[in-house]
Amino acid sequence: MATTPSNKMLPKPHLPPNLPSLVATAFSRSVATKTVNFYPTSVTLLTINSIPFQLRYSPSLASKPKPPSVTTPKLFFNPFASPTQEMLITPFGTSPPSHNLVLNKFAVVPEHFILSTSAFKPQTHLLEADDLAAAYACIDAYARHNKELFVFFNSGDHSGASQPHRHLQLLPVENMKEGLEGGWDVLAKGLTDPNTRGKLPFEVFARDIKGLGGDGEELRRVYLELYNQACEAVLGVAEDIKHEGEAQISYNLAMTNNIMAVVPRLTEGGVVKDKDGQEVGNLALNGTVLAGTALVRSEMEWNALREDPDQVNQVLGRIGVPNRAKM
Ligand code: AMP
Q1: Does the pTM exceed 0.85?
Q2: How far apart (Å, rounded) are the C-alpha atoms in residues 271 and 282?
Q3: In terms of Cα–Cα distance, which of 272, 250, 257, 249 is closest to 214?
Q4: For residue range 231-275, what is the model confidence (pLDDT) as tens digits?
Q5: Which residues contact 247 (CB under 8 A, 6 or more apart)?
Q6: Is the CB of 306 under 6 A from ligand 1?
Q7: Is the Cα torsion angle 137, 138, 142, 143 positive or negative in sign?
Q8: Which of helix, strand or coil describes residue 283?
Q9: What proportion of the chain, given as a percentage, has pLDDT over 70?
Q10: Residue 171 pairs with which residues in a beta bridge?
Q11: On the chain, which terminus has fewer CB atoms closer than 10 Å, C or N?
């Protein structure tokens, strides 16, 4: 029997209509009890190939514990396995709940939160339709309050990922703009424009998703198209790209209400040197690079990169596949 498109659509995950205030309340409560670590960061605007790029300095993140290894998941605490009441914002998805929204314990900006699967699923496996539908439902819930969310996902050794339990991260865009006097917006929003893509030192693949209505299967179709392009950029003409299970490359995904973007990753970052050529640290980038942001944890790196922003450009040139269309 032929299947009609409506039969194929997944039921839309239902979220509380007041999601932004739910997140804000949970965040303030947990910062007050010190369950969440958030200390104000310093931020500055750099111009990289005429793209406004924000550099953020968070000294408190220097004390964030690093998981011993992503490849030995059994040896360390999984924060997403059964989140405490203080960290949990809300479970949601079809019954039983497929996902949890939890606070990020090491918030980069206020109200930084996480969408994790309720049951353990590997971070390195390809995303499923219900993951993408759940992420888009959050974007939609914010849009209903005229607020924007930037969603990102890190997968694979070179992507900046640290936790093996599947999760996407969500950042309220107005909080990412705090401390900047304008002139910056989420990079991903402009990535369907070849002129903007052409200014980046790395290859990135992007599609407009505005007309898809947040349908999980449609979002997954776009995701797989972008993932295929990313695999081909890394592996060459790939005839054997699988669409289930373990991803064949490291990559970051970004999503806003109108754009989905995928960047294939080859390295996590690169060294930072001071003006005397001494190594002062390492700039590691995750999916927030697709928002046009980079985060540093030491004052020496912060000073070195502000003095010589071209180092950010050089690191951007190493993290992915060099952009053949670069202008
Ligand atoms: P990733 O590095 O992409 O794997 O993302 C993992 C995220 O989990 C990071 O942004 C961490 O700050 C966050 N995180 C680490 N430990 C915890 C925890 N105990 N509770 C909530 N979030 C955490």
Answers
A1: yes
A2: 4
A3: 257
A4: 999 999 767 899 999 999 999 999 999 999 999 999 999 999 999
A5: 124, 125, 126, 155, 156, 227
A6: no
A7: negative
A8: strand
A9: 92
A10: 150
A11: N
